[in-house]
Amino acid sequence: MNESIDILIDALADEGLKSIARKVKDGKRITDEECLLLFEKGSLAFVGSLANFIRERLHGDKTYFNRNFHIEPTNVCVFSCEFCSYSRLYAHKEEGWEMSIDQMLDMVKAYDGKQITEVHIVGGVHPKMNMAYFIELMQKIKAHRPDLHVKAFTAVELDYMFRKAKLTTEEGMKQLHDAGLDSLPGGGAEIFHPEIRAQICADKVDAIGWLAIHEAAHHLGMYSNATMLYGHIEKYEHRIDHMSRLRELQDKTGGFNTFIPLKFRNQDNAMSYVVESTITEDMRLYAIARIYLDNFPHLKAYWPMLGRQNAQLSLSFGVNDIDGTIDDSTKIYSMAGSEEQTPEMSTEELVRLIKQANRKPIERDTLYNIVKDYSDFNF
Ligand code: V47
Ligand code: SF4
User: Fold this and answer.
1) How confident is the prediction for the chain on average, in pLDDT?
2) Contact call for residues 271 and 200 (beta carbons, < 8 A)
3) Of 115, 43, 99, residue with least CA distance to 371
4) Strands, E, within 32-75: which ranges?
5) Which residues on adjacent β-strands are paired with residue 119?
6) SS3 (DSSP) at 149
7) Most CB atoms within 10 A, among 49, 98, 154, 212?
8) What is the DSSP letter of 209?
9) If we measure between CA atoms, which residue out of 130, 152, 139 comes closest to residue 105?
10) Atom of ligand 1 nearest to the CA of 302
């Protein structure tokens, strides 16, 4: 592996890029300025080679997926993010859905006896679904199936819940954790920089609040993910600012598992005028994120959003996880125009997809413990 990176370094004429490649080879951190240079001048082949070098140093050919299902309690939302194709304002409730605790519990019960390790619960911010409601939901899920890992609520939902209940972030997080909440998904981060946030999601929790919620979860020993919604009106500088805030918090707590770039999709939302990013830009972003976020163990391509073939391609650009929605239970992306209108993939298909890309399929649980190595399975 070192030989191929040495050849790459020798062939480079640009001193800045050469120095970045040397840093990657030596396992050193790149600066924000170097990250900008990668965005501005790094070819797809160059950033891809570096990212793949890092990916293979960290994980070899291992490519993770998990068996999970989604519950979306409501699409009614008090906020009005410009990019969102999913929410229905509270005033127009008739267009939205709201699930009762029993309905959600029935969804959990539908998986009785099935090998599922995680339930992922996120939705809109409904003014009536409060702390008490979700504490009851957590308790009932855990009473029914204690081994099921509950990954739930974006920092946006949590911030609203805690403020309504007049709880500090630490108090609110502790109450939910005690009720059964195991970890946090990465949503709601969008782009942290206030200039962009003011234009795309002005009314919801800001960067400081989002980061404080994840920090509080990490202090309780919980893990979480982080996302970045890219490919709309943000510039390279805003992506770097976003990743830099995440890298800084990760240095402090070590509580992030996975970074998940989310490609902006432009169907049926107030930003439909924005042209979506190209696949080349998508792959360059994955690769640059892998290079910059040296303290994040995992990089995930969320296949229901990116599509199966592009998710497969991303495995050569730093990605080592392709999530694992097994059921048609999430609507947030299909409503925004993603490739996958019915995001459902069996374990067999996931394994085949990873093997076709010459990688090793590994089923994991939410915390990346190995559930099963599928390298020798031929479906
Ligand atoms: O925060 C909304 C995004 C996110 C659009 O942690 C859109 O494992 C693209 O965060 N185009 C919520 N994206 C989902 C999320 C997530 C998904 C999968 C796995 C995990 C995890 C977390 O969905 C929102 C927002 O950034 N989103 N609208 C859109 N038009
Ligand atoms: Fe509500 Fe989330 Fe949609 Fe924003 S992205 S409007 S917070 S559902």
Assistant:
1) 92
2) yes
3) 115
4) 62-65, 68-71
5) 69, 150
6) strand
7) 154
8) H
9) 139
10) 18
- In the prediction, which pLDDT does 326 show? 61
Q: Which of 37, 19, 30 is nearest to 244 (CA)?
A: 30
- Protein residue whose Cα sits closest to atom 14 of ligand 1: 187
- Residues spanned by the domain of 37: 2-58
**Residue 187 Cα to ligand 1 middle (Å):** 5
Q: 196 with 312, same domain? A: yes
Q: Whose CA is nearest to atom 7 of ligand 2?
A: 79
Please tell me the distance between residue 159's alpha carbon and the centre of ligand 2 in angstroms. Answer: 13
Give pTM, 2 decimals.
0.95
Closest ligand 2 atom, CA of 84? 3
| Whether residue 192 has its Cβ less than 6 Å from ligand 1 | no
Cβ of 225 closer than 6 Å to ligand 1, yes or no, is: yes
Question: In terms of domains, do 33 and 163 share one?
Answer: no
Q: What one-character DSSP code corresponds to residue 28?
A: P
Query: Ligand 2 pocket test: which of 72, 83, 84 has the largest number of ligand atoms within 8 Å of its C-beta?
Result: 84
Q: How many domains does the chain have?
A: 2
**pLDDT beneath 50, residues of the chain:** 328
Q: How far is the CA of 262 from the centre of ligand 1 (A)?
A: 6
In tens, the pLDDT along 135-193 reads 999 999 999 999 999 999 999 999 999 999 999 999 999 999 999 999 999 999 999 99
Tell me, what's the pLDDT at 337?
62
The Cβ of residue 144 has, within 10 Å, a number of other Cβ atoms equal to: 12
Structure tokens at 374: 């599928």
Q: Is residue 116 part of a domain?
A: yes
